[in-house]
# Entry
Amino acid sequence: MAYETVIGLEVHAQLLTDSKIFCGCSTKFGAGPNEHTCQICLGMPGVLPVLNRKVVEFTIRMGLATNCSINAYENFARKNYFYPDLPKGYQISQYAHPLAEHGHIDIVLNGGKKRIGITRIHMEEDAGKLIHDERNPWSYVDFNRTGVPLIEIVSEPDMRSPEEAGEYLRRLRDILVYLEICDGNMEEGSFRCDANVSIRPKGEAAFGTRAELKNMNSFRNVQRALEYEVKRQQYILESGGEVVQETRLWDDAQGQTHSMRSKEEAHDYRYFPDPDLVPIMISSEWIEEVRRALPELPLEKQDRFVAQYGIPVYDASVLTTTRALADFYEETVKLCGKPKIVSNWVMGDLLRYLNEQKRDIKESPVSPDHVAQMINLIEDGTISGKIAKEVFEEMYKSSKKPADIVKEKGLTQITDEGAVVGAIEEAMAKNPAQLAEYRAGKEKLFAFFVGQVMKLTKGKANPQLVNDLLKKMLSGS
Amino acid sequence: MGLNELTIHELQDKIKKKEVTSTEIVTDVFKRIDAVEDRVRSFTTMMKEYAFEGAKKADSEIGKGNIRPLTGIPIALKDIMCTRGYRTTCGSHILHNFVPPYDGTVVKKLRDEGAVFVGKTNMDEFAMGSSTETSYFGVTRNPWDLERIPGGSSGGSAAALAADECIAATGSDTGGSIRQPAALCGVVGLKPTYGRVSRYGLVAFASSLDQIGPFTKDVEDSAIMLNAIAGYDPMESTSVPTEVPDYRSFIGKDIKGFTVGIPKEYFIEGIDAEVDAAVKRTIQVIEGLGAKCVAISLPHTQYCLAVYYIIAPAEASSNLARYDGVKYGYRSTDGRDLMEMYKKTRSQGFGPEVKRRIMIGTYALSSGYYDAYYKKASQVRTLIKRDFQEAFKTCDVILTPTTPTPAFKIGEKMDDPLQMYLSDIFTISTNLAGIPGISVPCGYTQGGLPIGVQFQAGHFQEGKLLQVAHAYEQHSGIERRRPKL
# Structure
């Protein structure tokens, strides 16, 4: 039987506020254990939460960017459960009245656009972290992360394959990063994903029983876990069994999911409105203010790049991955024109060097100005495209101006006909056998002679000039 | 007469005239504590050294002419208010060793106004009770009759004040925990409007009902204390940025032309005859002062107790989840794994009344029951609020008994939670509506037990409340007695 996969994702994104959601502690990553804590985030008796306004603003931003409606009235609720990393015994979250609802984003897959619904986006506080010490019968708890603001973004069950889920996740991450409200780092846990997945016979309207998958800490693992889970459920159905509703953990090493708890063991969180926090009223003025300040989003930018610069969709999608990269590209084009050539250099050499060193575009030692200057040097014939590769590498290493590098290294293109003729004569004289073969009709050897001439001129000879002269001289005319 | 028997304003006058020093006052207070504390047992923790240090500081400020409204005045704090460096137990085993790393806002404010803290007072565990019998630290006794309870949950503060072991005290009131013990111990107890006084640093019982307020020997002192502790606190989201008037300015104003509502639902069967008579005499005194007493109805009164015993335990079940043995307080050491540690810590750390309320609250919030209990209770609470809004359209204040009976015997109601809950029947509505209420002594039973009358007013109308209470106090014709200890 043919099955259809149904996937919905719950994404938790840590917001890039300076301080925590309900107290003034820093949200900076990497401090010593419990250094960023106070009586409030430690849940000491008698403390009270006060909401960080920035969290609301950031969440409105995400709501608007994902076409949600922003609720004028919302409140916080307590989600009650016991765990040592949860100091109050409840998490302050939103339940009946989330900040944003009923949105969507578009994803592009195999050249086609698909719309994925966003059910809701709500604000909540993060929990702490347990550190288990295998040698001791106890665990440590670090509350630095406790109270770091999160938004939870819940999608509709609109995805029909692990690839779609992967694309949705990447798109969502790109939007968050564009909005500058989350760093989108899945490995460090500032961007986390749980998945609800079920399958049903093709054509069936009702959903199958779903499993909730947890513990997938990379984009690749989300896709792998989903693929595994779809196969597992198919196997169960095909062998006459029934899928049970449960929470399953992804085991990266084994490449499998394992049951964590059944539906019966699921917590009753006993949500109720948090009496320590007052309802939030968001004015339409505030929403409009945030809307006006929204940046251009990745997909909009991609479409614009294609239309405005005439570059291929693929180029545009790579160049718009981050705002900084897109800005780099646009600044360079503004300085030297030639959008496709700029795209080749940025996507090719620049991204390759950066990726090799795992550096961000913001840390690029090469500036848009230098890239533009280099392209101008190619355009005006000062250097060849081939020499430019060398110039670019040096530019990346030393951050020097391309013109200075060309001068220092004597890389200026040889456009003097006499010098090129000399080199050709030398090449012909050194390789009489090949010359004879060429003249006997083995035209493939033309490239060999181009190589020889370039070698003799240290690559500086103008390639077009070499071509023209070589053709004439080799044929002896 | 010891200085410990005087009021704040009497001592202030003497301090200003340089007739007494704070050290002398504190000395008399501790003399009294030494003499009676082993019988009354008002305190969980004494702060004697700290008090004398405070007195010394106060005397030096007085010497410089810096006299704040509470400078040098010895005050007792209910052991539910966080005091940096001094244990804050909430009358519970689970917090028996908990030393807060911070001061609550009210503690800070009182200190800034010059107050000297003498100790932390006993209370029902986590403020759950009406008799101070549920405390892990033992029962506090009513100074008027040591066989009787002082009321609760702030019974320690009420008893300490009635026994002249301090000049004033603080309490917290979730369903009557200031007004009820004030009535049973013959002192003045004020519960301010929800949001008037900061809850920051007050260990939460039921967050939407809790409010800190003063115990004082007379109404003028109540105004002085409220002046010191009222006001907006940026550390609390439910704190209200309404202007704070000078509450003392309402003291001494007449109440001619006031309309005083007498809700018929508060004069019910089962109310003690002597209490009933004392409150009715109060009505006559009030009328004699030129106020008009009118019969009113608060139709949803019969639901108050039921609504309260859903909402308060529901919030408490969540508020008390943090006492899990992980971070501070008592931890059972014989659990083999996390779940066992949790279970044993909480089983051993909480007393029966707290456990009962955690269970009721957990049940009321459970999936499938939430709508029938918590949600329904919240809706009825709105109706109760509306009753009062309606009443205050025509009334300046509402007058009721504070309690249905005078102080009962120790142990009398411990086995019958429902009977115990009924002792707050007249005070609970105030908290549900979020309005202010005050209990003022209005007489004694033949057996010599104090009786209290309660006044309630609209939101942020503490001024009116103090005005009426003070006018009544000045003309009640009741002799000022002291318990014989």
The mean pLDDT of chain B is 97. Chain B touches chain A through 43 residues (CB under 8 Å). Residues 371-391 of chain B form the longest helix (21 residues). Residues 183 and 452 of chain B are 4 Å apart (CA to CA).
